[in-house]
Amino acid sequence: MPKPFLILVLSALIGTQTVSAQQLRPSLRDSLQKASDLMFKTGTYGFVTVDAVLDGILELNEPYEFTYKDKRCSFKKEKLSKKQQRVYNEKFITCLKNGGMTENSTVSIRSDGVRIAEIFKTTAYIAADQPAKSSSAAWFNTPPNKVLPDRDSARHLGDLLVLNMLDDQLVDTSKKIEIKYSLGSVFVNGKKLNEEHNSKYSAMIENVNKQSGYNPDMMTFDFSAHPNKLRYPHPGPVTSDK
Length: 242
Hints:
By secondary structure, the protein is an alpha+beta fold. Helices cover 36% and strands 14% of the residues. The protein has two domains: 123 residues, no CATH class; 93 residues, no CATH class.
């Protein structure tokens, strides 16, 4: 089940000069590799953009789009070699599983650039959450007799949205849930929310984004969860959002 770790929102207006892999200092390269390893181990799929910088596929501060779909990684403008394609596919699938997701997940990341400051902010966030499980998948796989954390303590945006949408009867945990956000509009299972709910949830997304130091105007967000991965304590039928 995909988890929307906040690196996915991806925009920080700091620094504009692109930096290639060849220009990275050895000490910085080593630090970036350690950051990538930590992200990978904890199921944080932003590791792939750090790897892409280290491999010379992306440059720091350079806009990019990354997609994982149908068990395949791709960058919009940058073409992977056959060897890179195999390595990236296998590693990304392993990362998804590390985070409690499945290889059939879909992940989309669009950013105005990989930022060193944001990479280390992310790893600091992960480190602060250790030794507790950093993956939001732990919430979805919680045994039925356990109580999920209160929504105010939600550490991941997807969890926060679904927990609130349950109260608003916008989602049904016995069915697949898909939430998408772009340019101020929130869609649940392909349907745009009404004005009241759209205002509530877009503000929630933008607020989390802003608190994380990102630019909400540059943000897109995709989240999906399958019913066999959901273990919420109060599932209920969805009502029409008119």
